[in-house]
Amino acid sequence: MRFLSRSCFGLAIAVGAIASVQAQSQSPAFEVASIRPAAIQASGGEGSQRSRIECTADGLTMENIDLNEMIEWAYNLEHYQLNGPDRLNGKRFDVRARAEGQATANAVRLMLQNLLATRFKVQLHHEQKTTAVYELVVGKGGPRLGKNKADTLPPAYPKESLPRVVDGGFVFANVSMSEFAQQLSELRGIDLPVVDRTGIAGIYDITLKSAAAAMLEPNGPSLLTLIQEQLGLKLVSAKDPMDVVLIDHAENPTPN
Fold this sequence. Notes:
The protein is α+β, with helices and mostly antiparallel strands. 21% of the residues lie in helices and 32% in strands. It is globular, with a radius of gyration of 18 Å.
């Protein structure tokens, strides 16, 4: 039974850093980094495509993550900004990396850029592209999202790349509106990138009741309908110009 299609501090992307592996290799580096094949991938089934990222003051933990997700987190990209084929054939990894002393989240991102350049031999470039998207906006009656958790969460908390299926619905835990939009893009039935245009700040637990079950019913309600009815949000078709990043080269990681 499959509901999810295949397909985490702001940081500006410098053109020179994207174009030049040399520039990447001069950025701060982790003191120690381990990259291993993902333990969960071999098990398959629901959740085998779900990754987990936790950034702390002294390092980074990534579980069941593919190369594209690593690049997206390192360069603070939305998933729809990264284009090109899967160069590692769907391989997923568990990454444990430790900084030397305390580090800001931006510094950890730069360290991951270095890791990608030196261990995966990643080379990138960027282009401007007009892309068909869904814009996530607030409906006429206003949003119905529940309590904002931003003030109650610890400084570092784990984030997952996909919602969980619970009682026939989708549960999006600890998500900002941007992260919610990104995870919506991964659901079967939403065939375009989803871009957050709500202007809503904060972190939420969001439940779409019966959404997973509805996907199994030929005449069931669409995800677009459920989002509007339950959350007071809408997905509106649009075309947005955006900066996209393309992977020119990548290799399997060098040994630990």
